Amino acid sequence: MSFHAAALSFSYGLHNAAFELPPSGFVTIAGPNGAGKSTLLGILAGLRHPYKGECLYRGVEIRRWRRLEFSRKVAFLPQSMKLEFPFTAEQVVFMGRAPYADGWFESQEDHAAVARAMSTTDTHAFAARDFRTLSGGEKQRVILASALAQEPETLLLDEPTTFLDLKHQLAMYHLLAGLAKRMLVVAVTHDLNLALRYSDYTIVLDAGRIAAQGRPEDALSPPVIDHVFGVHATLRDGWLTYDA
Q1: Residue ranges of the domains in the chain?
Q2: Chain-centre distance of CA 15, in angstroms?
């Protein structure tokens, strides 16, 4: 297992969560606003503490990991990144190599990792552009490239399609699903149909508690959606439709 949680709680936003996540695959975390999604993701990223209960990564309690070693294995992407200085897109990607920094200059390994990450995310075309001038979709891909430059085993994303149009939402999830074939990808999402279409496993949170988890078609069944979201839904041909 990659992550293992038991009786996992936080002072606000999470109560007695229990789950196990595999070393690879695409896991989505869904739920209404304030359900505890970002709190859970923050604990997995080692950013929320102190928590109660167990939360292990690779068999070691997250709080016991050395930060540098943990950052080489787990990459976290926030909803957005705001930069005030004129960094190029490529320089932002190089920031992902911080856990491997050893001196003032980038190593050959750093350059190779950045090149691979930018190739995977198709960001080479605007490598020299000021990050601040990029569109929302371009920025998200650059931030993702920065995380991939860390060469992590696990990728954690907090609503990666925020501010993206439909075309770029689908492109982002298609890319993440491809990455999940060789690593664990965990993403918070509000789009239940994207979770149904692309993820392998879904955790649904409601008021800080896990209301359902399992295969997306089970965890996001109409009865669960009715109970958690207060919306009547119909699942047909793998897609959800909602009653007015």
Answers
A1: 1-73+153-167+180-244, 74-151
A2: 21
Residues 6+ apart with CB under 8 A from 82: none
List pLDDT tens digits, range 115-159: 999 999 999 999 999 999 998 889 889 999 999 999 999 999 999
Decide if domain 1-73+153-167+180-244 falls under CATH 3.90.1150.10: no
d(CA 172, CA 121): 9
Q: Which residue type does 53 have?
A: G
Which residue blocks in 121-186 are alpha helix, DSSP H? 136-148, 166-179
Distance from the first to the final alpha carbon of the chain: 41
Task: State pLDDT tens for residues 187-240.
Answer: 999 999 999 999 999 999 999 999 999 999 999 999 999 999 999 999 888 889
In which residue are the tokens 């503490």 written? 49
Helix (H, G, I), strand (E, B) or coil at 233: strand
What residues have CB less than 8 Å from 17, skipping those under 6 apart? 5, 7, 8, 9, 40, 53, 209, 210
